[in-house]
Design goal:
265 residues, mainly beta, 8-stranded parallel sheet, 6-stranded parallel sheet, globular
């Protein structure tokens, strides 16, 4: 961030980005990798099984981190079986993936099977998945019992949370009734700053995701204290990648939004 390459929580064409067509941008074939703060865009036309980030390493042990990133799809024709984050199916071994503070959107193409975050990869994995925002995907999250999901948000998806996640998963949010796993999870339509322009910061008027999460700063599996913008989370955490932070009467994302609008006009 100090080198000014990173996005500001919304897709930004003036910042570093990796955009490709009909190829997997990142396929991981080594045991330890951290992907932090990237913008990744994948366009797929008439192909299947293309993924923006793919955990392809079959050895053990392995640990991966994907955080503070924006991962968007652009699927058309017969594109199917495409995922924002996914990996190879393994039934044994010791592999860990920590996925948090990401925004994943537009992994959809009609009724074809495409998913934002697919973590149904067998019992050779442990997935810790926290404070992600998934929007406009056919399936938001496809989960196995090895996926522990907290403070995660799914909106405008045909199926927000699919599969059977770890029973300790909680404090999630979906706009589909009975969809989000956990006794403390919430149902409702979240108000974002500007979905038409892919700005998934929480709007100050939101009453669904704001203050509906749980504090993970001391979580034994995945502890962190910030959001996708690097802003410090405090008080009762918000669900999703963005933490609403008030600044002189406006949230940081809303203030930036107003500034950008003024610059354009």
């Amino acid at each position: 961030p100090n080198e000014n390459y990173r996005h500001d929580g919304k897709w930004n064409t003036s910042k570093y980005r990796l955009e490709v067509s009909n190829l997997g941008p990142i396929r991981i074939q080594v045991p330890y990798v951290r992907i932090i703060g990237l913008q990744i865009g994948l366009t797929v036309v008439d192909l299947s099984n293309k993924n923006a980030i793919y955990f392809g390493y079959t050895g053990t042990p392995a640990e991966y981190v994907v955080s503070h990133s924006i991962i968007k799809g652009n699927l058309s024709g017969t594109a199917t079986g495409c995922y924002g984050i996914a990996g190879t199916y393994q039934t044994s071994g010791s592999r860990v993936a920590k996925i948090y503070n990401n925004i994943v959107y537009d992994w959809v193409n009609g009724t074809n099977s495409n998913t934002g975050i697919r973590l149904s990869l067998g019992d050779g994995w442990d997935f810790y998945v926290s404070n992600n925002t998934v929007y406009g995907c056919y399936t938001g999250y496809l989960l196995s019992s090895q996926a522990l999901v907290k403070n995660c948000l799914a909106q405008n998806c045909n199926n927000g949370f699919g599969g059977t996640p770890d029973p300790s998963s909680d404090y999630n949010c979906s706009d589909i009734s009975g969809d989000a796993p956990g006794a403390n999870s919430v149902i409702g339509t979240v108000t974002f700053v500007d979905t038409a322009n892919d700005d998934y910061h929480l709007d100050p008027s939101d009453t669904v995701a704001k203050d509906a999460g749980t504090d993970l700063s001391s979580d034994p599996n995945l502890a962190f204290t910030d959001d996708i913008d690097g802003e410090t989370r405090s008080g009762t955490w918000d669900i999703g990648a963005d933490e609403y932070v008030a600044l002189a009467g406006l949230s940081i994302p809303v203030a930036m939004h107003h500034y950008q609008q003024q610059m354009r006009t």
